[in-house]
Amino acid sequence: MSRPHVRLLGQGIRYLTKLRGGGSAFPGLVMERLHPGFVAEELAKLPHGVVVISGTNGKTTTTKMAVQLLRAQGYKVFTNRTGSNFVRGVAAALLGEMSLTGRLDADIAVLELDEAHAVHFVKQVKPRYALLLNVMRDQLDRFGEIDTTRRMLAQVAAATTGTVVLNREDPRIASLAEHVPEGTGVRWFGLAPALRPMFPSDDDMRSAGGPDAEEDHEQELAPRPPAAVELTSFEANRVRLTVDGEPLDATVELYGVYNIYNAAAALALALAVAGPDADRTALLDELSRVTPAFGRGETIEVGGRPLQLLLVKNPAGFRLSLASARPGDYATMITINDEYADGRDVSWLWDVDFHSLREGGVDVVSGTRAWDMALRLDYDEVAVREVVPGLGDALRRFVAGAGDRPMRVFCTYTSMLELRRELSRVAEVAEI
Amino acid sequence: MTSSTPTPRTERTVHLVQLYPRDMNIYGDWGNTLTLKRRLERYGYAVRLTDHDPGDRFPADADLLVGGGGQDSGQFRVQEDLQRIAPELRAMAADGVPMLAICGLYQLFGHEFRTGAGETLPGIGLLDLTTVGGPTRLIGNIVLESPEFGTVVGYENHSGITRLGPGQAPLGRVVKGAGNNGEDGTEGARLHNVVGSYLHGSMLPKNPAVADHLIRAAVERRCGGFDAEPLDDTFAERAREVAQARPR
Ligand SMILES: [Zn+2]
């Protein structure tokens, strides 16, 4: 089959699967079968190349922010925002963006890829930029070990031709600098020393006496390289960054230190792409408008009260979400599913410290592993008011019982999708 | 360890030691330590909790030891220290001190562990078993039947293939999952008051019978007897039912 025919076929299938409400990766799968080099060939034409964003936590939010920042610099950005971050998902996204004459109207691609798929992807397409965020524990039951995940990201770093942007504060990511090939630059984003304790790595998740008796685990490490973007301090929405040594203040609409750090990562990437021509004023302006991706602190109005959905999938992330506000001020629900996309292994819940929930207790616990979660909370001596495994029922009881308190729901991936469906019946919920 | 018949003490304090929390603490191993600590407290005993990391002075007055899994790199880091304290551990085990060894530490409690990369880590031979690195990881929900503890539920995630020596009793027979090697139907190992297993998930919260066996043994040795009202294990019972019904 000739190329344009293959592409038109792919676009036709994409249209049909959309009508049927089918998965977004299927047309890409067809394309991959019929024309295996399709993605590589199309992306190779982009004048500013391809950006790969990977890591275990915060990819979706950081990708969304990086796209927004680059668009503010005038780039036409192609991205795989459908959430299917496979090579074939990229192919499907490409088909959706191309005109029927086969022209992709973009000058740079910013792609979110999970670690395993990033490895597969960079064998076909050499990225010009890579932004590598962190290596945490959520993928363990699929790939076995954290060190395996790190090795996957090392292959991404090794395949990058322009600049690799690395998280200076994650030791497994920082050590990837040695895999960056000669001629490829390294840029860092990082945290001021005072903020580092807020981002525990999985290695020092537990210290003597467990969460009951935390001790200072800051190790004496080699001096850190200077960061292109350092998060210096923040208080509520006011953020101070140090950009190439220069202090800059910004106001952000981001919830929680985690998202603010992701914004710093996205900014470091945008600066690397734009180079010395970067318009910093425009970037900081845009930074004040970036928002997290759905489920990463998204707020939905329910009956006139805010309900926040906080995606949790590993100990460090759950801990940070818990710490991002005073739990006693909120009604709290926790929903833990163990479907394949969540990870079947719920053992990581035992590495989260839930003490901060003691004061207010937890209103409702739900999901397939509701009883595991209740058991976990019980051993941290956190009172659980209700255990309701069915998510729809649980949500209704939670909202009804919240009174005038704002609501926070900590949820795993598939439980979040189901909660959003339930919420869309009673509230305005953005389409994913 | 000086005496095989410990003198009863009036104070109800149990010394709980977690082995290598810095290097071997993954997949929720903290849950096992926490479960022992809380249950002891709820039974009315005080708990002294000590971490033992490589190079630390070994707390020879430990009443109950627990240790977990790690990356292969973590096992290499603790291996030398484990050899150092091995004589004490073997003597304590023979003396009835309860121990729980999960995953990586379970492997090192055996004779040796030959990794997939061809390196050999000597174990301490406390349990009669040998482990080799396998080609695939054995991952998923697992259910056992144990003659002592009834149904035991958990989650396994290991590439090590473990074979028990001829006289070595397993912890249980696999009902669902792979267990020691995916072939002979055994899971874990039992000797004196030592329990070795690949189950995390964490193991003890959802298996109060195993937790209480370890607790009872520790308390009886330390305090001369165990007297306490049973705890309310409703959450654990419901969580066990769910875990058994979930897909692998
Ligand atoms: Zn394990």
Automatic annotation (TrEMBL), chain A:
GO terms for molecular function: acid-amino acid ligase activity; ATP binding; carbon-nitrogen ligase activity on lipid II; metal ion binding. Keywords: ATP-binding, Cell shape, Cell wall biogenesis/degradation, Ligase, Metal-binding, Nucleotide-binding, Peptidoglycan synthesis. Residues 200-223 are annotated as: Disordered. Pathway: Cell wall biogenesis; peptidoglycan biosynthesis. Residues 53-180 form the Mur ligase central domain. The keyword Repeat does not apply. GO terms for biological process: cell wall organization; peptidoglycan biosynthetic process; regulation of cell shape. Coiled coil: none annotated. Its EC number is 6.3.5.13. It comes from the Bacteria. The active site is at D345. InterPro entries: Lipid_II_synth_MurT, Mur-like_cat_sf, Mur_ligase_cen, MurT_C. Belongs to the MurCDEF family. MurT subfamily. The lipid II isoglutaminyl synthase complex catalyzes the formation of alpha-D-isoglutamine in the cell wall lipid II stem peptide. The MurT subunit catalyzes the ATP-dependent amidation of D-glutamate residue of lipid II, converting it to an isoglutamine residue. Forms a heterodimer with GatD. PANTHER family: LIPID II ISOGLUTAMINYL SYNTHASE (GLUTAMINE-HYDROLYZING) SUBUNIT MURT (PTHR23135:SF7), MUR LIGASE FAMILY MEMBER (PTHR23135). HAMAP family: Lipid_II_synth_MurT (MF_02214). This is Lipid II isoglutaminyl synthase (glutamine-hydrolyzing) subunit MurT. It comes from Kocuria dechangensis. The lineage of its organism: Bacteria, Bacillati, Actinomycetota, Actinomycetes, Micrococcales.
UniProtKB/TrEMBL annotation, chain B:
The active site is at C103, H200. It catalyses: L-glutamine + H2O = L-glutamate + NH4(+); beta-D-GlcNAc-(1->4)-Mur2Ac(oyl-L-Ala-gamma-D-Glu-L-Lys-D-Ala-D-Ala)-di-trans,octa-cis-undecaprenyl diphosphate + L-glutamine + ATP + H2O = beta-D-GlcNAc-(1->4)-Mur2Ac(oyl-L-Ala-D-isoglutaminyl-L-Lys-D-Ala-D-Ala)-di-trans,octa-cis-undecaprenyl diphosphate + L-glutamate + ADP + phosphate + H(+). It comes from the Bacteria. Substrate binds at R137. Pathway: Cell wall biogenesis; peptidoglycan biosynthesis. GO terms for molecular function: carbon-nitrogen ligase activity on lipid II; glutaminase activity. Keywords: Cell shape, Cell wall biogenesis/degradation, Glutamine amidotransferase, Hydrolase, Ligase, Peptidoglycan synthesis. InterPro entries: Class_I_gatase-like, CobQ_GATase1, GATase_3, Lipid_II_synth_GatD. Residues 19-207 form the CobB/CobQ-like glutamine amidotransferase domain. Pfam families: GATase_3. Gene3D superfamilies: 3.40.50.880. Coiled coil: none annotated. Its EC number is 6.3.5.13, 3.5.1.2. GO terms for biological process: cell wall organization; cobalamin biosynthetic process; peptidoglycan biosynthetic process; regulation of cell shape. Belongs to the CobB/CobQ family. GatD subfamily. The lipid II isoglutaminyl synthase complex catalyzes the formation of alpha-D-isoglutamine in the cell wall lipid II stem peptide. The GatD subunit catalyzes the hydrolysis of glutamine to glutamate and ammonia. The resulting ammonia molecule is channeled to the active site of MurT. Forms a heterodimer with MurT. This is Lipid II isoglutaminyl synthase (glutamine-hydrolyzing) subunit GatD. It comes from Kocuria dechangensis. The gene is gatD.
